[in-house]
Amino acid sequence: MVEWTDFERATIADIFSKMEYEVIGPAALSRCLVVYPWTQRYFGNFGNLYNAAAIIGNPMVAKHGTTILHGLDRAVKNMDNIKSEYAELSVLHSEKLHVDPDNFKLLSDCLTIVISAKLGKEFNGEVQAAFQKFLAVVVNSLGRQYH
Amino acid sequence: MSLSGRDKTIVKSFWDKIGSRSADIGAEALGRMLRVFPQTKTYFAHWSDLGPDSPQVRKHGSVIMAAVGEAIGKIDDLTGALSSLSELHAFKLRVDPANFRILAHNLIVVIASYFPADFTPEAHVSFDKFLMRLAFALSERYR
């Protein structure tokens, strides 16, 4: 079981209470698709992903980015049991979507960078440490049911 | 994933934009790396202060960024440009090359916070590619 300090719990709660899901979600996913273009393999039916501008302007990417970010809410609400919260989603990503779990880390890195751009100085080393620890636990849980 | 002409142009112009803030950015990136990825502290056990305001961290961060700047000046031959630094890291410091990626990540996090509007996904991909090539050139002499 993951141990969280009071600071870590408060930091995660604070970041997500102020989260602009419809801005940050699309920004993180589109950045991932641009910076790590091989991740586009999972979005063959999303239409035009031919260049950065197309990706950033793509409404399906935007919608899915928002969905993914909201997917983190369940971890925020139940930080003491993230592994079980994502068991089903892990099975889905493994058996139905066939997503290489390495991609979860790529997306979480992009999310960290987008949050850093958004929060600026407020995203100091302590906050970054808490945020990256949280994402690492989520990423680990999503890869847990792969076999 | 070699650097296109476009990548090199983007990296150079972003470096110009960073300008004199490079030392601060380097210091912050190094400090964050030590905090967020504590396993990296193992290489700096000889420093008395590993906190974010440590003068040792600040100094070394700016040393690192100066080397990055020099590499950008010789972006067409990163292997040649980093040859002696590679030997240093390989034979004397013996830093596991996986850590170059970790520092690169923290550099990008700091750059994004300093330049939220300018560090677009396009700038990000070129910079990420450059840092990966830099890390590769730095590990060239390892084995």
Automatic annotation (TrEMBL), chain A:
Transmembrane segments: none annotated. Coiled coil: none annotated. This is Hemoglobin subunit beta-like. It comes from the Eukaryota. Keywords: Heme, Iron, Metal-binding, Oxygen transport, Transport. The keyword Heme applies. The keyword Metal-binding applies. Gene3D superfamilies: Globins. GO terms for biological process: hydrogen peroxide catabolic process. It holds the Pfam family Globin. One of its GO terms (molecular function) is haptoglobin binding. Residues 3-147 form the Globin domain. Belongs to the globin family. GO terms for cellular component: blood microparticle; haptoglobin-hemoglobin complex; hemoglobin complex.
Automatic annotation (TrEMBL), chain B:
GO terms for biological process: hydrogen peroxide catabolic process. GO terms for molecular function: haptoglobin binding; heme binding; metal ion binding; organic acid binding; oxygen binding; oxygen carrier activity; peroxidase activity. Residues 2-143 form the Globin domain. Coiled coil: none annotated. Keywords: Heme, Iron, Metal-binding, Oxygen transport, Transport. InterPro entries: Globin, Globin-like_sf, Globin/Proto, Hemoglobin_a-typ, Hemoglobin_oxygen_transport. Gene3D superfamilies: Globins. One of its GO terms (cellular component) is hemoglobin complex. Involved in oxygen transport from gills to the various peripheral tissues. Heterotetramer of two alpha chains and two beta chains. Belongs to the globin family. This is Hemoglobin subunit alpha-B-like. The lineage of its organism: Eukaryota, Metazoa, Chordata, Craniata, Vertebrata. The gene is LOC115576217.
